[in-house]
Amino acid sequence: MAKKAKEISVEDKLRALYDLQIIDRRIDEIRAMRGELPLEVEDLESEVAGLETRMEKVNNEVADLEQDIKDKLLLIKESEEKMAKYAKDQEQVRNNREFEAIAKEIEYQELEIQLAEKRIKEFNARIDSKKEVNAEAGERLAERKQHLEHKVAELDSIMSETQKEEKMLLAKSEETKGSIESRLAEAYDRIRSATKNKLAVVSVERGASAGSFFVIPPQRQMELAQRKKIMIDEHSGRILVDPLLAQEEEEKMQQMIAGWLK
Q1: Contact between residue 44 and residue 151 where contact means Cβ atoms under 8 Å apart
Q2: 3-state class of 65 per DSSP?
Q3: CA-CA distance, 238 to 193, in Å (whole number)?
Q4: What's the whole-model pTM score?
Q5: Which of 16, 6, 10 lies closest to 225 in space, CA to CA?
Q6: Residue 215 carries which DSSP code?
Q7: b/e 104-136 (16+ beta carbons within 10 angstroms → b)
Q8: 37-160 maps to which CATH number?
Q9: What is the largest CA-CA distance in the chain?
Q10: Of 8, 132, 228, 250, which residue is 20 to 30 A from 40 by alpha carbon distance?
Q11: What is the pLDDT of residues 90-124, one digit of tens each?
Q12: How far is it, in rounded angstroms, from Cα 110 to Cα 75?
């Protein structure tokens, strides 16, 4: 005949729930220490990458303009060579029609040179403007990189101090939750996700549930102290435990967490 499994008492269920809350509360505290740092680092990394991309784009535009200037200088040189050739040809013309035809070619090359010089001035002005933009972006990039390094160092410092503890606590949270019947574990998760401070299990403090201003009637407090049933605060929706049980579990879990970290 199979041996009947030992039934878990309500008190044991309450202790397990409160232990789980203590563990999860500590995880929340660790994550609160990091605060917005991970998001700040992510935002700064995106900003730095964006600045670098924009600066690279501007540098490519400057390189293109510099190539355009080289092309225009080459065009000027070619035009000057043509003008020199035309000037020699003019010395050997046989009639006015040939002279005027060559004069028009020389005039055309002069216009080409003037237009090229105008374009070179425009390109240089655009280059100066773009370099000025990149100089400002470079200063901003240097400042953002320095700020990023500071934030990364700050985050790394916090992570190095708390990562081991958080990893251990997450495992213990899963382990503890696994020891609680699924109905209660699901209720715990549901209550925890619905509260701002993520406290699903609270003790009674000065006649009210922790964090609440609504007084719990003496009769219900007496029932709570008997630990015969799972009781819910009708105002906050949290699971209640009596102060003595909470104190006992706080002391026990403090010692256990310290032991886990050794």
Answers
A1: yes
A2: helix
A3: 11
A4: 0.61
A5: 10
A6: B
A7: ebbeebeebbeebeeebeebeeebeebeeebee
A8: 1.10.287.1490
A9: 132
A10: 132
A11: 888 888 898 999 999 999 999 999 999 999 999 99
A12: 11
Place of tokens 């505290």: 29
Q: Give Cβ neighbours of residue 88 (< 8 Å, ≥ 6 apart).
A: none
> Is 195 in contact with 235 (CB distance < 8 Å)?
no
User: What pLDDT digit, counting tens, does each position of 45-87 carry?
Assistant: 999 999 999 999 999 999 999 999 999 999 999 999 999 999 9
What is each CA distance from 122 to 40, 56, 116, 126, in whole angstroms?
Answer: 42, 21, 10, 6
What ranges in the chain are assigned the alpha helix state H?
10-34, 37-90, 96-178, 182-194, 218-226, 243-260
Q: What three-state secondary structure class fits 93?
A: coil
Q: Could you identify the residue written with the tokens 């700040």?
A: 40
Domain boundaries, the chain: 10-33+174-260, 37-160
| Fold adopted by 10-33+174-260 | Helix Hairpins (1.10.287)
- As a dihedral over the C-alpha atoms of residue 195, residue 196, residue 201, residue 207, rounded to 10 degrees, the angle is -100
Nearest in space to 19 (alpha carbons), one of 129, 182, 177: 177
What amino acid is encoded at 168 in this protein?
M
**Using CA atoms, how far apart are residues 151 and 144, in angstroms rounded to an integer?**
10
Question: How many angstroms separate the CA atoms of 127 and 69, rounded?
Answer: 10
User: Two tokens at 239?
Assistant: 């699971």
